[in-house]
Amino acid sequence: MRIALVHDYLSQNGGAEKVLKSFTEIWPQAPIFVLFHDKEKIKGFEKSKIKETFLSKLPRVNKNYEWYFPFMPMATEKHDLGDFDVVLSSASGFAKGIITNPETLHICYCHTPPRFLWAGTHKYLSDLRYNFVVKTILSGVLHKMRLWDTLSTNRVDHFIANSKTVENRIKKYYRREAQVLYPPVNTTKFYTTQHTKNYFVAGGRLVPYKRIDLAIKAFNRLGWNLKIFGVGPEEKYLKKIAKNNIEFLGNITDEEKSKLLSESRGFINPQYEDFGIVSVEAMASGRPVIAYYKGGASESVVENITGLFFYKQTWESLLDTLLKFENYNWEKQEIREHSKKFDKQNFKEKIKRLVEDRFEEFDKGFRQEELIK
């Protein structure tokens, strides 16, 4: 079985890249097709054969890739995948739009239909710091891209969703069924400790939809210690509204994150996530998660056992839930045990079996059609 991997682009470290890394561990010989790869920023794929498109040669594509969104559908279609039996795409944007031969099986692991085209398109436009004219032009561009995105789903033979939340979005926007397989979390890298300290943690990519501002506003009023890790375009604004009890750590290593989470009182998840890997990492550290009850967190967190929910995405609702936090006696080992159902090894075994089973069915059906002809 000759297999190729397709990913949108390698310019940021996130959950999608962790999924891709797991794919390369299962199929180390599989080439990876991407629009472009920021080799300085994205490490861990040195042993893989990575094939980029013409976009990789354009100026500032790694830092300002949004400039090139209108060209990404065309660039994706230029991936030449004619030599493969199976193509496994990892998509939250364009990768599912590849063109394959009739005898090639295309399985798409979908992290989400693109937010900027669908569920979050109005918020995306309103958050852009451009004038009315630019936003009006961009709105027309997004309309064209939305049409392409819808058509591209016809090129997928089988969808896998990274959560029930994403499964519902695929059904809503694409009218396609999907099988749910939660993404991998390397729970073995995290540990519990008896030496907890007096702070909470929030973080990840500091972008608007993560709603770190809600955590800052709640902790500003409580006066409790909050440590925020990660960088992003919202960083300047978030630092401006934060008081002295809130500390920004910037980018941290995996080892630093393990220590940070295990010694914390809990992890704050104020965003509407597709899944939310960091929440599971916090639980793997034995720490409870205080999460907005929507999206992946509603599937991974067990209320009153591994964390608490707040039901309105406001700082006031988060603050009310934090005030209840003291009333619980959190069992570290029980929380960590729950996290193991999302372990990386389980994911690798399931995705490998799923791809092999789907290919066996596909190949058998294709050969039967050839015999009939």
Give the SSE map.
Elements: E1 3-7, H1 15-26, E2 32-33, E3 50-51, H2 72-77, E4 86-91, E5 105-110, H3 121-127, H4 132-152, E6 158-161, H5 164-174, E7 178-180, E8 200-203, H6 212-222, E9 226-229, H7 235-241, E10 246-250, H8 254-262, E11 266-269, H9 277-284, E12 289-292, H10 297-300, E13 307-310, H11 315-324, H12 332-339, H13 344-372
Parallel strand pairs: 1-2, 1-4, 2-3, 4-5, 5-6, 6-7, 8-9, 8-11, 9-10, 11-12, 12-13
Task: Give a summary of the structure in a few sentences.
The chain is an alpha/beta fold and 373 residues long.
Arithmetic mean of pLDDT: 92
The helix/strand class is alpha/beta
Structural domains: how many? 2
Number of helices: 13
The CATH class designation of the largest domain is: Alpha Beta
The general outline is globular
CATH topology of the largest domain: Rossmann fold
Uncertain stretches of 5 or more adjacent residues: none
Distance between the termini: 24 Å
CATH architecture of the largest domain: 3-Layer(aba) Sandwich
Structure keywords:
38% helix; 2 domains; globular; 373 residues; alpha/beta; single chain; 7-stranded parallel beta sheet; 13 helices; 13 strands; 6-stranded parallel beta sheet; Rossmann fold
Report on the structure:
- The two termini are about 25 Å apart.
- The protein is an alpha/beta fold and about 375 residues long.
- The model has no long low-confidence stretch (mean pLDDT about 90).
- It folds into 2 domains: about 5-185 and about 345-370, Rossmann fold (3-Layer(aba) Sandwich); about 185-340, Rossmann fold, CATH 3.40.50.2000.
- It is built from 13 helices and 13 strands.
- Strand 9 (about 225-230), helix 7 and strand 10 form a beta-alpha-beta unit.
- About 40% of the residues lie in helices and about 15% in strands.
- It has helices at about 15-25, 70-75, 120-125, 130-150, 165-175, 210-220, 235-240, 255-260, 275-285, 295-300, 315-325, 330-340, 345-370; strands at about 5, 30-35, 50, 85-90, 105-110, 160, 180, 200-205, 225-230, 245-250, 265-270, 290, 305-310.
- The strands form 2 sheets. The chain has a 7-stranded parallel sheet, with helices on both faces. Strands 10-9-8-11-12-13 form a 6-stranded parallel sheet, sandwiched between helices.
